[in-house]
């Protein structure tokens, strides 16, 4: 569905039908996806500019418009990326994509679940691609809102935070209903019910709940913002420009924390 929203080509009839229904219920959902994807690119560029050249992208999804290894490779041809997803179709497509555009030794993709940090981290390290002693950018972008509290996403994030080397970055985005007006509530309820029928039901969280995922990591300026407001740079991804009239319409928070 996300790939379809972004105008990608790796989607199937069943995804397109579900995505079209989501668009009927929330006509600006494509722009929400684009705004999120553009944030991901800007955050990757920020990390590279800070000298962080290795990335773990949890919930990377099916390879789609502007993949992390491509964005990173443009700025640093020696950058390294390990993609992680728990979805077998995303893994299969990711591996094909990396065979075509990746480089063994610098890029990898593993199947693992965010909710199992021990296994996930071991699989990432088993690729031999990353040096865990060096600063790493951990990307968990548009993923946590698929994990309910009872599956302990907060504990998982705390675990990852303590594994990262000093100087590492934690890049997060997350869906929220904080800016939804009473007039929009019914529309959003219908949208949430629609997602409840998919493989990835949505769990919206407040700004305070989102902030907890960053733990005690100091936040990079400008702190927690709507995705379009995090260090905007329209030159980076003109194909991801949106018609959102207000940043809060993205309904997605963004933040980057750094481990001192
Ligand atoms: C909306 S996509 C986000 C793609 C990319 N991170 C981005 O923001 O452009 C969400 C991805 O999270 C993955 N995902 C959901 N729950 C997960 C879990 N428990 N562990 C790993 N990946 C998960 C889904 O399979 C999907 O590929």
TrEMBL record:
Pfam families referenced in this protein's UniProt entry, alphabetically: Methyltransf_19 (PF04672)
Keyword Endoplasmic reticulum assigned: no
Domain of life assignment: Bacteria
Annotated Gene3D superfamilies: Vaccinia Virus protein VP39 (3.40.50.150)
MF-aspect GO terms: methyltransferase activity
GO biological process: methylation
InterPro entries named among the record's database cross-references: SAM-dependent_MTases_sf, SAM_dep_MeTrfase_SAV2177_type
Keywords: Methyltransferase, Transferase
Protein's name in the database: Methyltransferase
Organism: Amycolatopsis acidicola
Lineage of origin: Bacteria, Bacillati, Actinomycetota, Actinomycetes, Pseudonocardiales
